[in-house]
TrEMBL record:
Keyword entries, A-Z: Hydrolase, Metal-binding, Protease, Zinc
Protein family (similarity comment): Belongs to the peptidase M20A family.
Domain Peptidase M20 dimerisation: 206-344
Organismal lineage: Bacteria, Bacillati, Bacillota, Clostridia, Lutisporales
The UniProt record lists the keyword Protease: yes
The protein's name: M20/M25/M40 family metallo-hydrolase
InterPro entries linked to this entry: ArgE/DapE_CS, Bact_exopeptidase_dim_dom, Pept_M20A, Peptidase_M20, Peptidase_M20_dimer
Gene3D superfamilies per the UniProt record, alphabetical: 1.10.150.900, 3.30.70.360, Zn peptidases
Highest taxon in the source lineage: Bacteria
PROSITE patterns named in the record: ARGE_DAPE_CPG2_1
C-alpha cells in the first residue's frame, strides 16, 4: 500500500471522537502542584493506553515522574538518528466567571458546526491525539519506520515543564541520545494575522525567546496612613514600573526575524521594499515596528508587570510592597543583562530582585537543514498555496528543553489559525475545525512515512 493510500484510509470520525473524549478529562495544571488533580492525569494516560492498542503493543513506554510518557517506536536496527515528536496534555484553567462566555461547556468536547470544542482543542491535546492517531494508523497498516520514533507528552508544559519535559530531556542526555530533529507545537498557517500579507504563510518556529519571572520587592517604614512620608513602598514600586515601561530594552534585528520579514517581503504589497531591505532600513523603521505589540515583541526583550501586592489595611502603610514581571528575553540579551537594565533605569532606588523562573533564549535552528526542507515539502503538499516562513516564537514550548539532544528543533502545527482562533487559546470558546485536525493527522502520517 502506498503512503498516500495509507494516509487516505485513516478513520477521521474515530479520531475526532478521540480528541473530543480527551478534552473531557480535566488535566488542568497549576503553579501550585498541590492543586493538581493527578487522578485525572492517570485517567488521561489510561485513556491513551486503551484508545491506541497498536501503540501499546508495538512501542516501548516509560513514565517520567509518573505522568510524562515516553513512547519509543523502534526501527529494524537502522542506524539513522531518531526523531522526537512532542506535545503536552495539560491545559490552563478556565478563568473565573468566564464559563458563561463559552458557547459550549469548556470540557464538554462537543462536536458541533464542523468543530471540536473545548479547552485543549488547540493547546495542545490536538497535537497529542494527532501524533497518536498517525502512529496507531501506520502501525495498523504494517508500516515500519526507518529510524526510531520517540514521542514525549508533557504534563506540566503550561507551568514551565520542569517535571515533565525537563526531566525527559535530562534522561535523553544521560543516555547520549541525539535526535535528527524535534517537532513541537508553535507555528501554524496564518492568513489574516499580518496586515498586507497576500498569501497564507506557514510559519515555522526556529527559536524561542527566553521566559523568566522575577519578583521585585521594596521595603520601607510602615505606620499610619494619616501621616505618610514623601514616598511609600507602594509608591516606589510604581516608580520602578514606570521607569521600566518608559525605558524599554534596545531593539535588535535577529536572524529569525530578519529571515521572516525577507521571506514575506514579496507578498506584503506596499511593505515589499522596506522588508526586502530590512537590514539597511531597520535603524530607521524600528520605532515604527515598536508601535505594534506583536512586532515590538519580535525586536526586543520585553518586560511585562503582571502582579502586584503590598498592604493589609486601607489605613496602614505597608512595610513591604512587591511586583512580579515576566521577561521575554531576545537572542543576544540574557536574563542577567535584562536585570541590569532594570537596575540601570532605576538609579538611586533600593530594591531586591528575586528570580522565580529563569530561562535564557533558545539557540536558533537552521533553515538549511534537511528536516526543515522536508517540513516545508510536507506542508506544501497539504497547503500548496502557503509560503514557508521561519519565525521567532514569542511564547515558550517544551521543545527548548531538548537543546542538549538536538540542533534541529522546529515548532509547527499543520493548522490554519485565524485571528479568532488565536484569540481563543487560553481564553473562551477554544475549538479546532475538523479539517484542521484532519490535516494535522495527515501531516504526521506523511512526516513519519518519510522517516
Amino acid at each position: 500500500m502506498s503512503d498516500s493510500n495509507i494516509e487516505k484510509s485513516f478513520d477521521l470520525n474515530s479520531a475526532v471522537q478521540h480528541l473530543a473524549d480527551s478534552i473531557k478529562i480535566k488535566t488542568i495544571s497549576y503553579p501550585d502542584h498541590e492543586k493538581m488533580d493527578f487522578k485525572l492525569f492517570d485517567e488521561f494516560l489510561l485513556f491513551l493506553e486503551n484508545t491506541y492498542p497498536n501503540i501499546k503493543k508495538a512501542c516501548k513506554k516509560e513514565l517520567v515522574n509518573g505522568y510524562c510518557p515516553i513512547y519509543i517506536w523502534e526501527s529494524q536496527g537502522n542506524s539513522n538518528k531518531p526523531v522526537l515528536l512532542l506535545g503536552h496534555y495539560d491545559v490552563v484553567p478556565i478563568e473565573k466567571d468566564s464559563e458563561a462566555d463559552w458557547e459550549e461547556a469548556p470540557f464538554s468536547g462537543t462536536i458541533k458546526d464542523d468543530h471540536i470544542w473545548g479547552r485543549g482543542s488547540l493547546d495542545d491535546k490536538n497535537q497529542v491525539i494527532a501524533v497518536m492517531e498517525a502512529v496507531e494508523h501506520l502501525i495498523s497498516n504494517g508500516f515500519k519506520p526507518e529510524r526510531d520514533i520517540y514521542m514525549v507528552f508533557g504534563f506540566d508544559e503550561e507551568i514551565g515543564g520542569m517535571r515533565g519535559a525537563e526531566e525527559a530531556a535530562r534522561i535523553f542526555r544521560e543516555r547520549n541520545i541525539e535526535f535528527e530533529c524535534v517537532i513541537d507545537e508553535g507555528g501554524c498557517i496564518i492568513t489574516d494575522m499580518l496586515e498586507g500579507l497576500t498569501v497564507p504563510a506557514a510559519i515555522i518556529g526556529i527559536a524561542e525567546k527566553g521566559s523568566t519571572n522575577i519578583k521585585i520587592t521594596v521595603e520601607d517604614k510602615g505606620g499610619h496612613s494619616s501621616m505618610p512620608p514623601g514616598s511609600t513602598a507602594i509608591g516606589t514600586i510604581a516608580r520602578i514600573i514606570s521607569n521600566v515601561e518608559n525605558n524599554p530594552m534596545p531593539a535588535r534585528l535577529t536572524m529569525p526575524v530578519k529571515e521572516m520579514l525577507k521571506t514575506m517581503a514579496p507578498y506584503m504589497k506596499e511593505k515589499k521594499f522596506v522588508l526586502k531591505n530590512i537590514d539597511r532600513l531597520f535603524p530607521i523603521i524600528s520605532s515604527m515596528l515598536a508601535k505594534s505589540p506583536l512586532t515590538n515583541a519580535l525586536i526586543r526583550t520585553t518586560i511585562a508587570f503582571t502582579m502586584n501586592g503590598g498592604g493589609d489595611a486601607p489605613n496602614v502603610l505597608p512595610q513591604k510592597a512587591w511586583t512580579v514581571a515576566n521577561l521575554r528575553v531576545l537572542q543576544g540579551d540574557s536574563v542577567d543583562s535584562t536585570l541590569e537594565h532594570i537596575k540601570k533605569v532605576n538609579p538611586g532606588i533600593n530594591f531586591q530582585i528575586e528570580k522565580m523562573l529563569a530561562e535564557e533564549p533558545s539557540e536558533i535552528s537552521s533553515i538549511d537543514s534537511e528536516p526543515y526542507k522536508i517540513l516545508g515539502s510536507i506542508i506544501n503538499g497539504i497547503y500548496p498555496e502557503a509560503v514557508i516562513v521561519p519565525y521567532l516564537m514569542i511564547g515558550g514550548t517544551d521543545s527548548r528543553k531538548y537543546l542538549g539532544s538536538c540542533k534541529n528543533i522546529y515548532r509547527f502545527s499543520a493548522v490554519i489559525l485565524t485571528k479568532k482562533d488565536n484569540a481563543s487559546i487560553h481564553s473562551s470558546n477554544e475549538r479546532i475545525s475538523i479539517i484542521n485536525f484532519s490535516n494535522m493527522i495527515c501531516f504526521y502520517i506523511r512526516f513519519l512515512s518519510l522517516n
